Structures are given as C-alpha cells and as structure tokens.
Amino acid sequence: MKKILIANRGEIALRIIHTCKQMGIETVAVYSDADAELPYVQAATKARRIGEPPVQKSYLNVEELLRISHEEKVDAIHPGYGFLSENSAFAKRAIDEGFCFIGPSPEIISMMGDKIAARAAMKEAGVPVVPGSEGDVTSVEEACKVAGVIGYPVMLKASGGGGGIGMVRCDNEEAVKQVYASTKARAKAYFGHEGMFIEKLITNAKHIEVQVFGDQHGNVVHLFERDCSVQRRNQKVIEEAPALSLKESTRQAMQNQAVQAAKAIGYYNAGTVEFIVDEDENFYFLEMNTRLQVEHPITEQIAGVDLVKWQILAARGEKLPRMQEEIAANNYAIEFRIYAEDPFTFLPAPGKITGYHLPERTYARVDSGYSDMNAVTPFYDPMIAKVIITGRTRSNAIELAKSYFTEAVVEGIKTNIPLFKQLLNEELYEKGTYNTSLLSTVLNKGGAPQ
C-alpha cells in the first residue's frame, strides 16, 4: 500500500496524513472550494479539488472521489469519520473498482447501519439491548402501542440514523402523535429511508463506548472504554478514558460483551460498541460505529497505540500488532472538542479566525483542522480542533486542563472554550458522578458561560 486517498477534510484528514508520513505512504487529499486554504491541503503529498462547498458536490460526491482515485492511481481509500465513512454502497463501489477500503466490510457496515438489524445481531450475540420495538413501527398507532407497553419516556429513532441525528424524546402519547410525521420525514431526508423504531429512554444514564479492533484472521481485542456523557443535542463535547466512574466489574463486562459482539458478526478494523448505562450500572447496546471515532485520540493516549496505523495494517491483511494481554491502560485522558459555536445556545458561529493559540504541551495533544486566518464556513461540522489532555490520574488531568484553557485562545469567532472553563470547575463534573444531563443541569443552574 503505497498511496492512499483520504475522502475527508479538516483535522481527521491531517491526522491520517500524519500516520501515513510515518509509514512512508503517499497521500492524496481532496478539498472543496471552501477548504482550499486549510492546513491538510498543504500537508498531503498531493491535493485535488473535489468540487463546490455543498457536501453533495464535494465530500459526498462518490463519482468524483472514485474518478480522482483512478487518476491518481491510489491503492486505498481512507474515509475518516462522517461523510461516506459508514456508507456501505461507497465501500462496495471502492472495492469493486479495485481499491482497498480502509474499514470493515460493506456487509458489516450495512448491517450495523440499520439500527433494527444491529439490535437483532446484538441480541443473537447475547448482548443486552434497550427494550423497544423489534422492527420498524409503520404507523403512529403502532408507535403509541409499543410506547405504551415499554413505558414512557421513549425515544423515536430513525432506523438509519446516528450521531445524535434523527431521534426525538417523547414523554407521552400526545408527544408521539405530534412528532411522528415530522421525524419520519426527517429520517427520509437525512438517511434515504423513513424507517423508525422506538426504544425506552434510559434516564440519568451514562454514555459509554468500548473501542474494539479486529483483523481479517478472526482476532478481536478491546482497547478499553470511553465515557462520552458530556453532550449537547445528543452529540459529544467531552470524552474521557478509561471510564473509572464505573465499577471494575461493570467495565470488564462491557469490554467482554463488546469483543463478543464483534467476533459474532465477523468484525474487522476499528469499531466502537456504544452502551447506555443506567444508575444501577445495567448496560444496554446503543449502536455500533463501523469507523474510526472522533474521540479515538484518548484511547491512543492511554493505550500507547496508533489506531490509524492499525487500520492500515488491518486493511493490508496483517494480524493485530498486539493481542489482548499485551494491551494495558496507562494514565488518564480527556478530550475537549472545540467548536465554532455559541457556548450557551450551541448554535454554529462561522467566521474568520483572527487569532489562534492552541499550544502543544507535554500533556496536551492538539488535533486541529484550522490555523490562523482560516475561515470556518457554515457548510460543515463546526468542530475546529480537539485538545487531548493526558494526566497520571483523572484529577491530575482535570488540573492540567484548567491550566491549559487559561492560555488557549481562538479569536475572531465564538467558541465553546468558556463552557470548558465553567465545567472544569463544576463539582458534579470534578466528582465524575455526572450523566448525559450534565450540560443542561449546569447551564440551567448558572446561565451562560462567562
């Protein structure tokens, strides 16, 4: 594997380029007109214009991506995360046209992308799933009937959804009736089909995910778990590893279940099994992400691995670099996703960055997609960087993070850095006893971050 096309942009494209350089692999970056000046474009061995800024004309433009891949004679395509990373049709097209797709098989991507099929596969593998409908609910009457049986509150979810999109909380039958049609239409618009299902909403819950990795020889390992409970709009903001707020027995059970699930479906390459954990530490399968996660750096920091390198090796057909007994968790890592957004309303705040100071430190890794004077446009996700703080313990990592954010500066646009400063001094966060309602609790109590 001598040349890889990266079908993505921003910080993840730069992250993949970094590993490829270390491995002596050439890279081809693609960029839209809006991204021409971003750092990853200059960092790649070669960069090709993919199209106009809208995603359908650029990063979701399958025909153009494959045309460039052929012209550049690349050996493989790395999809990164988001965009086409969990699009089984794209993975199959890439393979059929002679490229190595750096990820799991198209069949596995398809199965896990269908939330109904994923639930069924997990149940068959002996993994606990959240109580809910066994298939799509096809009418508002059926939705209300299922919700009445499992009990409110419930989540109405798009079968093809993910990343916090296509899900609505319903606290009673009237709510189900009110949102059923609009949620169905949104599912069709976002994911191409209108299938929906219902799950019991586990309240006061933690969102925990287990990093798994498999090779094409049947070996699967876990690289511990991440606590992703600090969220806004069902999307992650801060992630930590490992999830030491849980009992050791709970953590081990989740790790074992995740590996068992991956083996049962013949999984290979990087994947994440997500669980929802209730107050009594009962855990239930939520979804499986068949790609590299945004928050993969905290796993790399505690386990001392390069997951992008592992992905490339697995795609080449090589065995896992380490077996389970050779993987240990050292230190504690916290990732902060810096977004160009209002820290109180969470609304995107695009604009030009006029000052950019996110320094690297011995304890701080910065995976950034932007630099000084770059423009954050409204066309894509507003995340501009990830700051990963690594400490000896959780309390040590929190103290280091407090110190770091006294000197971190992004000027010209609004960011959520003020929110981090506030959260790091919240007793609920410092104790580690929070759940997915933390952000709303803090903001309702104290108002906008200063």
Automatic annotation (TrEMBL):
* Keyword Plastid assigned: no
One Pfam match, given by its short name, reads Biotin_carb_N
Residue span, ATP-grasp domain: 119-316
One GO MF term? ATP binding
Q: Recite the UniProt keywords alphabetically.
A: ATP-binding, Biotin, Ligase, Nucleotide-binding
Biotin carboxylation domain location: 1-444
Which SUPFAM superfamilies does UniProt cross-reference here?
Answer: Glutathione synthetase ATP-binding domain-like, PreATP-grasp domain, Rudiment single hybrid motif
- Which Enzyme Commission numbers does its entry carry? 6.3.4.14
Which superkingdom, per the lineage? Bacteria
Protein name (record): biotin carboxylase
Per the UniProt record, the source organism is Priestia megaterium (Bacillus megaterium)
